[in-house]
């Protein structure tokens, strides 16, 4: 038994309270090293007196009353196995330890402080148990009930649809989906244009809209916010926004706003006041200024050199995006009010928070709490490109942009740098980083306003794009489609990925659009099954296999996915009782390269 590989931490992804008040436990061990794991658990106050007689004396001994339950092996990787169990305590308190048995039938009692032999004396030692003194339901990571069946559609408002030419910028260009936009180009997309196409989105099956920022800002992307309480006048007014949100809600859609609170824009009232008045400005402390000559850098009179101390903190080296001091109460209150305002006044359904991993945790805890005080089931998702455990413990975000999963999927399907076994290992390890309800809230994207479009990344291979979309929509998390992907739009990295939406239906890939409509329907139908039961891989980790297979089953319903990521066709195993729900490249016998089949029973 390799003791160094065994891991369990309470109050973490290894031991967490579920939204229904149960306790979910995980234990990690070396792959193939452990034969059985049993949890002994009970109320830490439940003892009974036992009368013990020996040759010289008789005494009363307090014996702890416990129960035993077996952990189930769930996911595994090339390095580790994971064992899991969910417990419903009689009372909201619990202590527990593990009996870990290896392949040679040797058993250790694995406790919080020691790993000891399994004896009655050791089982009765209260000092060696993991403990939840009281299970507070408010400590559970929350998930909006509506999220499991939601499929998002990301809209870059300036490029989706121009519905009101009266609010176009003065330098607006003619709408041209074939043009390669520059970073400064305007095409006139607006809120009225989105409103006009809500029925199009509903017909596609979309029931969640993620809007890139719509607040007042000079750029086309609006991440350089000038005023968080005003809509950009080129996008429309409050009446148009209310009309849009109300109709979206009537169609069963949720609305996710995008905001960046790490920094503010050059044209904001606060930063302009600092530029005019320096240290005399009431907003001077709103920013993190390192150099008394910061004005020269802000105006471009002096250059900011890579590697040198920044004259003032900013996003990347963007001098027009000064970082906000979120440890200052005045800044905190200003930003908290923004979060509350749009939830309360316009009934939005959540926030996507840009550059969230550069803002302190104390601020996010309070921001999220104040938002949930307004709307308890709002969805809050952060932008993070790394391990995000520190913001996903239940007191901050529901989920984050799931870029690691995106990289894993592309690494196998497009770049061929990961084998099937690598793919399974990396996905399983990714899932085991977080609590179960957090995995359900991860925001799964394959492309966005920041990245190359999926079809372009696939070298315009539509079969490959379909395969990747199908695989992703069968994963834990909430999937998101980038505008125009459903009709075959292409585009390299930012800004080319921000082309105008093509509303000329003669240019559409209608076969792809029909496929995506079917895929969205399938995801909404089986979303609860995918979110609520354990993923089971049917492909072996030990040896390379021709097909990538996995399954979700709750005993009553089952969903199976089979994918061919090799260069030759392969025979699909018999699936008695299953009905094919969606396929590409499958002739009921053979599965073509870049093909897949999804079946249910």
TrEMBL record:
<protein>
    <submittedName>
        <fullName>Alpha-glycosidase</fullName>
    </submittedName>
</protein>
<dbReference type="InterPro" id="IPR045857">
    <property type="entry name" value="O16G_dom_2"/>
</dbReference>
<dbReference type="Pfam" id="PF00128">
    <property type="entry name" value="Alpha-amylase"/>
</dbReference>
<dbReference type="GO" id="GO:0005975">
    <property type="term" value="P:carbohydrate metabolic process"/>
</dbReference>
<dbReference type="InterPro" id="IPR017853">
    <property type="entry name" value="GH"/>
</dbReference>
<dbReference type="InterPro" id="IPR014756">
    <property type="entry name" value="Ig_E-set"/>
</dbReference>
<dbReference type="InterPro" id="IPR013783">
    <property type="entry name" value="Ig-like_fold"/>
</dbReference>
<keyword id="KW-0326">Glycosidase</keyword>
<dbReference type="Pfam" id="PF02903">
    <property type="entry name" value="Alpha-amylase_N"/>
</dbReference>
<feature type="domain" description="Glycosyl hydrolase family 13 catalytic">
    <location>
        <begin position="154"/>
        <end position="523"/>
    </location>
</feature>
<keyword id="KW-0378">Hydrolase</keyword>
<dbReference type="InterPro" id="IPR004185">
    <property type="entry name" value="Glyco_hydro_13_lg-like_dom"/>
</dbReference>
<dbReference type="InterPro" id="IPR006047">
    <property type="entry name" value="GH13_cat_dom"/>
</dbReference>
<dbReference type="GO" id="GO:0004553">
    <property type="term" value="F:hydrolase activity, hydrolyzing O-glycosyl compounds"/>
</dbReference>
